[in-house]
Write a structure and sequence with these properties.
The complex is a heterodimer of chains A (200) and B (464).
Chain A: H1 2-19, H2 42-58, H3 61-69, E1 74-83, H4 91-103, E2 108-110, H5 113-129, E3 146-159, E4 162-175, E5 181-194, E6 198-199
Parallel strand pairs in A: 1-2, 1-3
Antiparallel strand pairs in A: 3-4, 4-5
Helix pairs in contact in A: 2-4
Chain B: H1 2-15, H2 21-46, H3 48-51, H4 57-70, H5 74-90, E1 94-95, H6 96-104, H7 116-132, H8 136-156, H9 165-178, H10 181-197, H11 204-216, H12 220-226, H13 234-242, E2 244-254, E3 257-268, E4 272-278, E5 285-291, E6 302-313, E7 321-326, E8 332-333, E9 336-339, H14 340-376, H15 382-399, E10 411-421, E11 424-433, E12 439-450, E13 455-462
Parallel strand pairs in B: 2-13
Antiparallel strand pairs in B: 2-10, 3-4, 3-6, 4-5, 7-8, 7-11, 9-10, 11-12
Classes of the chains: A alpha/beta (200), B alpha+beta (464).
């Protein structure tokens, strides 16, 4: 009989443990690699940006463009499609890439299509409201030479609590005049995730 | 006396996780009746703890996600359904402590992880949410997540529900919108397969689009395998000619919820379990015998047991069908593409034997424990003995509560109608019809603008 109460008491304690919660917050280095769920995270985004920037700047397309144009090529960001299984903010690595290329002084960027629309609205608004000296004129935009487009794909293999996720990010620069592709960069990331079927 | 104190302490602990399912629907159906979808949303948000609690966090987000979808607040719907899906994933690992608590009390002490049809419905709504806000990449992501979820369900138990014809149909639509015609053909094929496998009525428009897609992609063998006619595809041809379409998604009627079915009988440890119950649908008294699980250290003890199990509870509703008038042209009748009433029935049937065996063993274990407890706490005071005996029996019976948790606002059936249109501006008048074809309510869409190649989605939430 005593055994019965011991068992019951043990389960009750377990029950109490299950109901308790504990939260701790600490600041960490933004470059630290922390993988919690196995989903796409800041580290993946950074790895893609680093690889793409390095590859993009080391390929011959750039010197060819300089020779041809005699000035820095101008790039516009086109559509980068997320075809993966996760809702991923692609803008994070695209912005990293844009910033690195601008800061390198080798490539100029012009505003993307939605940004341009907002800028044109502002210019239109200035036309009726700003002073003559400060007003900006329409029709003075710089036309881009190249468009950056791409996609993020994923393939998943899963069995029970185990998963292998393969991400492939492809970016390409296309000459807007000739539609010739001048650079294709790609980055592959593979992850193995295992989950326990039982926890305490 | 110490033993009594311990017993009281433990009982107090276990009563902490009470069943909220009984009150939830009553409270929310009133809010829905009085304040519509917004009223129900407000009540859920205001009374989160009382109506759902931590253990039903999945349902809290699931119900809100569905209501926000009906209320055309697609972004909030996405947020809540994403949280619900996250909770489902986080509960992949079964907690030993929760399982132990459920063993002592009832299944309501476990965090609710969703029934397979709820999970598949969640993905249907998520895909539709993203299509509603013209986020094709978002819809694409949900399609892939849905495919992973179906694969995981298949791996878990290939005999139970792990596929859904409407979900595959939506997947085909998303692939078409992506321009991935090969993948669309495969999804059309899978959609027909799923309807056939679960013996559901094949929507005629799905047959039309599947035939067309498989023929165009050189998959005549697949078409023959499906055994569906492939000669006429008027809808696909019309879509090709006109170049755009309006897709009307109607939610007809209210899905059933879960009520309690009382069962009683005899449990002979390790030998047999004989149970009698009243069938909620037919009112017929039924009994059956099954092998009883073995409860350790209880020999061939016999116990009279009584407990409750979840059973389907049909709710009253008015809307069964829709008729659609486009630009005052002849009316188009909508077709059902999924039946949540069937899904609940199938789910309860899939889980029936497992739930009965598990619950009966738990109740028998508790009955044996209660008998031992009464003996252990027996004193020389007959009045105290009587009080202890009654208290033990009441505590033991009160602990057993059927797990009635289920999504409360799913429709009874989903109708989908694809209407090929020329690019331009269109007027739609949609009537929600009762079982005799009389109009219950009307939904009017004026000057709907459709662009070339677009699939424009309109939603008719008529769950009352």
């Amino acid at each position: 009989m005593n055994n019965f109460f011991r068992v019951l008491f043990f389960f009750s304690l377990l029950f109490l443990v299950a109901c308790s919660s504990n939260q701790k917050v600490s600041r960490i280095d933004p470059n630290a690699v922390v993988d919690l769920s196995g989903r796409w995270n800041d580290t993946d985004s950074r790895l893609v940006a680093d690889e793409m920037i390095k590859d993009c700047l080391s390929r011959p397309w750039y010197s060819n463009m300089i020779q041809q144009k005699g000035a820095n090529p101008t790039v516009v960001i086109g559509k980068v499609r997320n075809k993966s299984h996760e809702h991923i903010n692609i803008e994070t690595f695209i912005k990293d890439m844009e910033r690195a290329l601008i800061n390198s002084g080798t490539v100029d960027f012009v505003a993307s299509a939605p940004e341009r629309q907002e800028l044109r609205n502002e210019i239109e608004s200035q036309a009726g409201n700003a002073t003559d000296e400060t007003r900006k004129d329409a029709g003075q935009e710089i036309g881009a030479d190249l468009m950056l487009t791409g996609s993020l794909n994923s393939i998943i293999d899963q069995d029970g609590g185990e998963q292998v996720i393969f991400y492939q990010i492809d970016l390409e620069l296309t000459d807007l005049q000739s539609h010739r592709k001048v650079w294709i960069g790609n980055k592959k990331i593979k992850k193995y995730i295992s989950r326990d079927a039982v926890k305490f | 006396m110490n033993k009594i104190a311990l017993l009281v302490f433990i009982s107090f602990l276990l009563f902490g996780c009470a069943n909220k399912s009984n009150v939830r629907y009553d409270a929310l159906s009133q809010s829905l009746e009085r304040g519509g979808f917004s009223g129900a949303i407000q009540t859920i948000e205001k009374e989160k703890e009382d109506l759902y609690g931590e253990k039903s966090a999945f349902l809290y987000h699931f119900d809100l996600g569905v209501l926000f979808h009906y209320n055309r607040d697609f972004k909030k719907s996405i947020d809540h359904l994403t949280k619900a899906e996250q909770i489902y994933e986080d509960l992949y690992a079964k907690s030993v402590t929760n399982e132990a608590a459920a063993l002592l009390t009832n299944d309501n002490t476990r965090p609710y992880r969703a029934r397979p049809f709820e999970l598949l419905f969640l993905y249907q709504v998520q895909i539709l949410n993203y299509l509603a806000i013209n986020d094709l990449d978002g819809a694409n992501v949900e399609v892939k997540r849905a495919q992973m979820a179906m694969e995981a369900l298949y791996q878990k138990d290939s005999e139970k529900v792990n596929d859904n014809g409407f979900l595959q149909y939506l997947t085909a639509l998303v692939y078409e919108m992506n321009g991935e015609n090969d993948n669309a053909a495969i999804s059309y094929y899978k959609a027909v397969k799923a309807y056939q496998e679960y013996r559901q009525k094949l929507p005629t428009e799905l047959v039309d689009f599947t035939s067309s897609s498989l023929q165009k992609n050189g998959r005549e063998d697949d078409l023959r395998q499906l055994n569906i006619p492939n000669t006429e595809t008027p809808l696909s041809q019309s879509l090709e000619e006109k170049g755009a379409e309006i897709v009307v998604v109607g939610y007809a009627g209210h899905s059933p919820i879960l009520g309690e079915m009382r069962m009683s009988g005899t449990f002979v440890n390790g030998e047999g379990l004989n149970l009698t119950y009243t069938d909620g649908q037919t009112g017929e008294v039924k009994s059956f015998t099954m092998l009883a699980p073995i409860i350790a250290q209880s020999g061939t003890a016999t116990a009279h047991i009584a407990f409750s199990l979840p059973e389907k509870k049909v709710l009253p509703f008015n809307v069964y069908d829709f008729s659609i008038y486009l630009n005052n042209e002849p009316e188009i009748y909508s077709e059902s593409v999924t039946d949540l009433n069937d899904e609940i029935t199938r789910n309860l049937k899939d889980d029936w034997s497992g739930t009965v065996a598990k619950t009966a063993a738990r109740v028998a274990l508790r009955t044996f424990a209660a008998q031992k407890t009464k003996k252990a706490v027996e004193t020389s005071n007959p009045l105290l003995n009587l009080a202890t005996s009654i208290g033990t029996d009441v505590a033991s019976s009160q602990l057993e509560k059927a797990d009635l948790r289920v999504g409360l606002f799913m429709p009874n059936r989903i109708h989908m109608t694809r209407i090929p249109v020329a690019p331009g501006v269109h007027d739609l008048d949609i009537a929600a019809l009762d079982s005799r074809g009389a109009t219950v309510s009307r939904f009017t869409f004026k000057q709907v603008s459709v662009q070339k190649g677009q699939k424009l989605f309109l939603f008719i939430p008529a769950i009352k």
